[in-house]
């Protein structure tokens, strides 16, 4: 393989250094990055090597036969043939050591004319597999040996010395051009193949990343939805536990809320798990119905039915006019605020304020008194990442979120979301 690679091949090989990228690349492409001497010959390589070997051996036999007909000394011809066949045998290692083989054959070719076939194949291999500078240096060594050959073997001289040297230079130039053309074509084919493999691998990576992003989004939705439902379950279950003497009507009402909340939580969990198990999470997949700001009064009524004291201050004329994406984010922020108030400040009055207009943005505020002392209600467990998720949600929507204790001692969760005009 050529040592010089274009930028695309360099990028694909660098990318293949990471385990994730290598897992997506075809094994045939990774095999290209191995050192050349370790790559096994393919059937095509064996065919080409056999053809080149037979060409060099056949040319050596023809030259020997022609020399014997012209009266060249037979013992010298046999020695010449032996050296030529030795050079032909060396062609089987031309892929591993092309430069070394070409230099050795050039040195033997100073005296042996039958090595010319092996010299052509060896020089062609250098032109294909090595840099142009190295190829030119090896060709210069071969030409230098060609200048010495007529002086050592004058019996093979058939014409003017300089004319023969000029033809030798033309022959070297033709072999060099042939090798460079083959090298350029191989690099082009390899570059196109690598780009195709890289495009396929990058597409698979994009699909994988899209699936991971979709699963992360679903996980956030799972937290927002199930945390609210399960906190209601825990609240009513705790009330039944600590008030076993409650009137039967209240017990029945609490049990009904527990049943309905458990049913809804299981249904939503089943939908989420079903999506997570699907293999075709693409952008074209339909989303499950999402709440909007118009569903906010139902959320407040649900919390009131669970025993919370919630005051809703609507300063928006029509909640349905709020864009769907903005309304969904605002709904999730209020839902998480009510869940946190139910966990950490049960029994306190929670104020929910929704204000804004198109062009000015939408502000959402959830405020409740800071809890004093230790609550007698059982603590509802949580992951502690709800506020982090809300901050991320507001930031991705182009807004901002603030939370913390105010100067008056209340806990305030406030968010501003852009509402285009």
Automatic annotation (TrEMBL):
<dbReference type="InterPro" id="IPR011712">
    <property type="entry name" value="Sig_transdc_His_kin_sub3_dim/P"/>
</dbReference>
<dbReference type="Pfam" id="PF07730">
    <property type="entry name" value="HisKA_3"/>
</dbReference>
<keyword id="KW-0067">ATP-binding</keyword>
<keyword id="KW-1133">Transmembrane helix</keyword>
<keyword id="KW-0597">Phosphoprotein</keyword>
<feature type="domain" description="Signal transduction histidine kinase subgroup 3 dimerisation and phosphoacceptor">
    <location>
        <begin position="214"/>
        <end position="280"/>
    </location>
</feature>
<dbReference type="GO" id="GO:0005524">
    <property type="term" value="F:ATP binding"/>
</dbReference>
<dbReference type="GO" id="GO:0000155">
    <property type="term" value="F:phosphorelay sensor kinase activity"/>
</dbReference>
<feature type="transmembrane region" description="Helical">
    <location>
        <begin position="46"/>
        <end position="68"/>
    </location>
</feature>
<dbReference type="GO" id="GO:0016020">
    <property type="term" value="C:membrane"/>
</dbReference>
<keyword id="KW-0812">Transmembrane</keyword>
<keyword id="KW-0808">Transferase</keyword>
<protein>
    <recommendedName>
        <fullName>histidine kinase</fullName>
        <ecNumber>2.7.13.3</ecNumber>
    </recommendedName>
</protein>
<dbReference type="GO" id="GO:0046983">
    <property type="term" value="F:protein dimerization activity"/>
</dbReference>
<dbReference type="InterPro" id="IPR050482">
    <property type="entry name" value="Sensor_HK_TwoCompSys"/>
</dbReference>
<feature type="transmembrane region" description="Helical">
    <location>
        <begin position="165"/>
        <end position="184"/>
    </location>
</feature>
<feature type="transmembrane region" description="Helical">
    <location>
        <begin position="132"/>
        <end position="153"/>
    </location>
</feature>
<keyword id="KW-0902">Two-component regulatory system</keyword>
<feature type="transmembrane region" description="Helical">
    <location>
        <begin position="101"/>
        <end position="125"/>
    </location>
</feature>
<keyword id="KW-0472">Membrane</keyword>
<dbReference type="InterPro" id="IPR036890">
    <property type="entry name" value="HATPase_C_sf"/>
</dbReference>
<keyword id="KW-0418">Kinase</keyword>
<keyword id="KW-0547">Nucleotide-binding</keyword>
């Amino acid at each position: 393989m050529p040592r010089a690679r274009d930028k695309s091949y360099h990028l694909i090989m660098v990318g293949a250094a990471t385990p994730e990228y290598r897992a997506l690349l075809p094994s045939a492409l990774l095999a290209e990055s191995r050192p050349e001497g370790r790559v096994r010959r393919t059937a095509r390589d064996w065919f080409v090597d056999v053809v080149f070997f037979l060409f060099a051996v056949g040319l050596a036999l023809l030259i020997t036969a022609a020399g014997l007909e012209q009266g060249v000394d037979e013992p010298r011809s046999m020695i010449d043939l032996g050296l030529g066949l030795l050079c032909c045998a060396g062609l089987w290692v031309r892929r591993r050591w092309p430069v070394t083989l070409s230099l050795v054959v050039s040195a033997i070719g100073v005296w042996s004319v039958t090595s010319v076939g092996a010299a052509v194949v060896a020089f062609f291999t250098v032109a294909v597999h090595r840099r142009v500078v190295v190829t030119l240096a090896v060709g210069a060594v071969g030409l230098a040996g060609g200048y010495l050959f007529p002086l050592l073997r004058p019996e093979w001289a058939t014409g003017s010395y300089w004319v023969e040297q000029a033809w030798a230079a033309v022959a070297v130039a033709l072999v060099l051009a042939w090798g460079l053309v083959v090298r350029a074509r191989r690099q082009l084919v390899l570059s196109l193949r690598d780009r195709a493999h890289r495009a396929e691998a990058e597409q698979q990576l994009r699909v994988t990343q899209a699936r991971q992003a979709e699963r992360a989004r679903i996980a956030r939705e799972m937290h927002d939805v199930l945390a609210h439902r399960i906190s209601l379950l825990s609240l009513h279950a705790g009330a039944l536990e600590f008030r076993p003497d409650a009137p039967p009507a209240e017990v029945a009402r609490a049990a009904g809320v527990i049943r309905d909340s458990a049913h809804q939580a299981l249904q939503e969990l089943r939908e989420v798990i079903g999506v997570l198990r699907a293999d075709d999470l693409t952008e074209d997949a339909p989303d499950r119905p999402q709440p909007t700001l118009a569903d906010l009064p139902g959320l407040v009524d649900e919390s009131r039915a669970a025993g919370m004291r919630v005051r809703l201050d609507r300063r928006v004329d029509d909640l349905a006019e709020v864009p769907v994406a903005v309304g969904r984010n605002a709904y999730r922020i209020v839902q998480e605020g009510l869940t946190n108030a139910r966990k950490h400040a049960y029994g306190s009055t929670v104020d929910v304020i929704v204000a804004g207009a198109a062009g000015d943005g939408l502000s959402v505020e959830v405020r409740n008194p800071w809890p004093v002392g230790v609550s007698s209600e059982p603590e509802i467990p949580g992951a502690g990442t709800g506020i982090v998720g809300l901050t991320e949600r507001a930031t991705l929507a182009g807004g901002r979120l603030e939370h913390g204790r105010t100067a008056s001692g209340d806990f305030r969760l406030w968010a501003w979301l852009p509402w285009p005009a």
